[in-house]
Design a protein that fits this description.
Length: about 325
Amino acid sequence: MSAGRLRFVAGRLIQVVPVLAALLLIVVLLQQLMPGDPGRVIAGPRASAEQVAQVRRDLGLDQPMLVQFWTYVTHLANGDLGRSNRTGIPISTIVGDRAGATTWLLIGGLLVSTALAAPAALLMALRPRSAAARLCARSLTILVNCPPFWIGLMLASLLALRTGWLPVGGFGESFGERLRSMVLPSLTIALAAMPLLARSGAASLRQVLVADHVTTARSLGLSGWPLVRRHLLRNALPPAVTLLAVQAAALLFGAVVVEQTFGLPGLGAEMVNAAGQRDFPMVQALTLIFGTAIIAINLLADLMVALLDPRTTW
């Protein structure tokens, strides 16, 4: 790796530090901004003012904001995310139990969306005037306007309820059962993300097609898959990786809707339940987890772009 790209990577790593600090501050402030008094919620509607005040002291909510921030960061450094207001179970245990379904969903959605978007982008870029390319473009226009929950309901109705091939909801116990239960949710989240990936990929490929080095390669007789592999994909991959990172971050929020639609016991569904029941520590922890995941995904994308594109410098 060149010195310029090393500086680029070092700069991106340094930029993560203030972003993480800002995320932690937002997470601590979240408890103050959410409607309702956490002390009252935990103590109960019939608790006296003294009991509510005692709960607030136990939680440290009566301390200044900087003290609350330092306390939260200290506990976090020790791996303590707190306890759920609803159950009293450590949040790390709940996250460990539910992270599997969300991880399966996100990985499956990314793989399926990439597998669908790549051939669509190649078709619209290399054969833009063909009937298949026009049909593909119109289908993407329709698909991009369909909300994920509607796509999920249609898939469940057509592929699950009518045929019985796939489960409508739930998360199985064995590997095979989980694989089958993830087909419809992954396809749902992939169809929601695929139109933007395909259109952006096609636009990047069109820009590369008119580049001088591609024109030269064509004049030398290079065509077909060798031309695509050596000259098109290599130059179109960096912007595609960046867009894929953006879509991966969007999928985290789309997972909330999809998990609710298919009854998956994931982190997105837990976030909805925690917010509805005023489980403030759980909302804080999941906000921190989602935010950190988005930061990590974008950082990884920047590092991959630095490796793929030799022109990347700081």
